[in-house]
Amino acid sequence: MKFHVLTLFPDMVMQGLMTSITGRAVQQKKIDIDAVNIRDYTQDKHGRVDDYPYGGGAGMLMQAQPVYDACQSVMEKIPQNKKKRVIYVTPQGIPFTQAKARELAAQDELLLLCGHYEGIDERVLEEVVTDYISIGDYVLTGGELAAMVIVDAVARLVPGVLGNEQSALTESFHGELLEHPQYSRPEVWHDRKVPEILMSGHHANIEKWRREQSVIRTAKNRPDLLEKAELTEKEKKLAEEVQKEVKKSL
Fold it and tell me: Which of 8, 55, 118, 126 is the most buried (most CB within 10 A)?
């Protein structure tokens, strides 16, 4: 899978993504990351990519021409039969979720467009963008950090990137539930013991405990997720009991 990040700050993007799991995945050729400098495509002799917005207002706006040409330079290299999406990272987009990450992981190539200043001329967005995605209800100085979040979340779903495929199947949001508590050595730390069940060696009972803990944690911290989770009748009753206890404590 290949990621193309269209940005005014390619060094920032590459420094952030060429470390840890994503960096190792690039070295192993599981994924490819390309940071495209939008400024390289401006026709302005001074290298400008922004101008004042029509109608007035604070700040500057990224112009359509360099953004369009940068995008076209990437699209021209992608074969027609490849599955691709052009994502504009913006607070005005739909919320980015694990389900969306799985959807995007099914693509062959992703173009992530990073705005800056007051954003990007609407006309080029209408022409090239397929998806508007937000990583949260807040405003950043640019789209680079949001783009890196999306690349990281999607890349780890690409086969072979994590090394252990089971990891992606047991993490938070798999099945719309938060992940269960995790423990490591030592067995006792600050007078707190690892739950006995985890040292029992009884894998079926351990999995049952972990599932219950996921339901409990989700009911406490993210009850909104339970609406989409597939729960047994017993698990539904457990979630209801937890939520009642949470309400009593408020």
Answer: 8
